[in-house]
Amino acid sequence: MNDFLGGLLDLVQSVDPVLRTLLAGIGMMLETSVLVGLIVPGDTIVIIASTAVSNPVEFIAMVLAIIVGALLGESIGFWLGRTFGPAIRRSWVGRKIGEKNWQRAELYLDRRGGIAVFLSRFLPVLHSLIPLTVGMSRMTYRRFLAWTIPACVIWAGAYVGVASAAAGGYRQLADRLHGAGYIFVGVIAAFLVAVWGIKKLIGRGEAKHLDLPEDPTDPKA
What we know:
Number of strands: 0
Number of helices: 11
Helix content: over 70%
Strand content: under 5%
Structural class: mainly alpha
Shape: elongated
């Protein structure tokens, strides 16, 4: 395990730090831009790139790149929603997402306002739909940024911090502890499980705001 993990981490670290940080930021921009977040695994991109962080300068640069990339992606989603929102919703991709998901995003934004923007960063599907939905609403871009920036900062700090700390700990223990690789994998797995649990808790706490009103014409209602 140590040999395999060491080779993998060395491969990531061999990439030029500037290029690596830039690619991570671009990956986050794609992950948070219009509907691409349903396909591109932003969590994986950030974790892999952050394992190569080896000093405070690289750490700060990586966090800033992830934040800027996320904000650029969400801004693209916002302005596309403001300009082409209804057309995107009626498109083939929009129909694949499902009208019910669009309605949930609209209703959630109507009920929770800025809080919906903040919490959607931690909710599946909604984190890709909310920027578009906000663009189609009356919320201003300035207010949208005011709510999404703190969420992006928390998200970036947590992922970069845990991944870089786990990799740094592994490098210190690898030569002295045969099972250091398993500890690294365990730390990352525990973090992902914790993230999953937090998302579940947020989802349950927000469930009443996400429920669609019953359709009186629906025979199942």
